[in-house]
Design brief:
Glutaredoxin; 4-stranded mixed sheet; alpha+beta
Amino acid sequence: MKLFYSAASPYARKVRVLAHELGLHDRIEAIATTVSPVEVNADIAGRNPLAKLPTLELDDGSTLYDSRVIVQYLLSLAPQAAGAPSDRWGLLRREALADGILDAALLARYEEALRPAEFRWPAWQAQQEAKVLRGIAQCEAEVDALTSALRDAASIGPRVDVIAIGCMLGYLDLRFARLEWRRQAPRLAAFDAAFAQRPSMLATRS
């Protein structure tokens, strides 16, 4: 399989961390590439009409996207991931929460990094960052579900919510350190400090 990814993409990192946790990373050729919302990468667009990363090309030449679909495919390949956790809907909701925080963060990032200064909309960007901070507050409220997963299992492969939130926090540190999310979420910060030291996270650090 071939995984087209960007090292800075938290969605792609979620897939790469999961592959490590499931012991599947040796079956995937990771191909670093670049996409932009203002310029089409023709190679990626030929594999994924949305021209977004990550994109996974399977052995038969077909492709899967986006990260949540790729995640479910990788889980289907791992026997140890069989069976649903007791809090399945909570797990899926937390994964969606992490991805939603990233959606807002990326929109804010594009606004400040790509949009010409004369066209920027500060109030719109502020609302995206407010979504990020509200999402962090919700993660803090549910941190027990994350820390218990780290404490109770050597492999957190099936716990995609844990991986998604860990990768999301890594992206905030990379691009939005000024938001100082740890000030409002000290228990989430403690989770992050532990999770960031997992071999899978160290191997995928940008």
